[in-house]
Amino acid sequence: MKNPESLTNTQKATLAQLKREGGALVRAYELKESLRAVFAGDLDADTVTDMLGKWCSWAQRCPIPQFVKVGRTIKKHLDGTQAAVERGLANSRHEGLNNKVRLIIHRAYGYHNAEHALTMIMLVCGPVTLELPYHT
Predict the structure, then answer these.
(1) d(CA 120, CA 114)
(2) What's the CA gap between 18 and 28, in Å, rounded?
(3) Which helix (DSSP H) or strand (DSSP E) does residue 24 occupy?
(4) Between residues 54 and 85, the one the model is more confident about
(5) 114 Cβ neighbours under 8 A, 6+ residues apart
(6) How many CB atoms lie within 10 A of CB 7?
(7) CB within 8 A of 68, min separation 6: which ones?
(8) Counting beta carbons within 10 angstroms of the beta carbon of residue 85, is it exposed (0 to 12), middle (13 to 18) or buried (19 or more)?
(9) What does the buried/exposed string (b/e) look like for 37-75 if buried means 16 or more CB atoms within 10 Å of the residue's CB?
(10) Cα(55)–Cα(85) distance, integer angstroms
(11) CA 20 to 30 Å from 13, out of 4, 63, 107, 122?
(12) Which residues form the Transposase IS204/IS1001/IS1096/IS1165 DDE domain (predicted)?
C-alpha cells in the first residue's frame, strides 16, 4: 500500500525477494504501480489514453481475474476517463462533502427528528456563516 519511495529498508528487501521469486503477487504489484504511474505526472490526455490502453491490454492478459475485470472496466470507460483528464475534472470534492455529511448523520443518531440532523448538515456544510460577538 506504500509508494516505492516510502518503503523501509526491510520492506525493500522483502520486495526484492518477492520479485526474484515471481508469481501472482509480484504481477499484481507491477500492475498496480504501472497504473499509478499513468496518473502520477502531468501528462496530456492523449498520452494518458495511450498508456491506459496499454495497461488494459496488459491487465486483460493477466491470470488474476480481478485485474482482468478492472482492465475491461477501464477500457469500457476510456472515453470518460480521457474527457476527465482533458478537462481536469475529479469528484474528490463531492466525495469529501459526502463523507462529511455521513459523519454528521452518524453523529446525529440520537436526534429526535430528521430536521435537527438536516440543520446540522446545513450549519457545517451549507452557506451559513456564523459570526460570534467576540470575533468583531
Answers:
(1) 10
(2) 12
(3) helix 24-38
(4) 54
(5) none
(6) 13
(7) 59, 60, 62
(8) buried
(9) ebeeeeeeeeebbebbeebbebbeebeeeebeebbeebb
(10) 16
(11) 63
(12) 2-118
- The CA distance from 24 to 116, in Å, is 51
Closest by CA position to 28, among listed 64, 74, 1: 64
Can you tell me the mean pLDDT for 59-83? Answer: 90
Count the Cβ atoms, other than its own, within 10 Å of residue 127: 5
What does the block give as the cell for 98? 459526502
Which residue matches cell numbers 490526455? 45
Locate 106 and state its grid cell.
452518524
CA distance 18 to 66: 20
Q: So what's the pLDDT on residue 1?
A: 65
Alpha-carbon span 72 to 59, nearest angstrom: 8
Which three three-digit cell numbers place residue 58? 496488459
pLDDT tens digits, 13-28: 988 898 898 888 888 8
Q: Is the pLDDT of residue 88 over 80?
A: no
- The residue ranges of every structural domain in the chain are 7-87, 92-126
Taking the whole predicted model, whether its pTM rises above 0.70 is answered as no
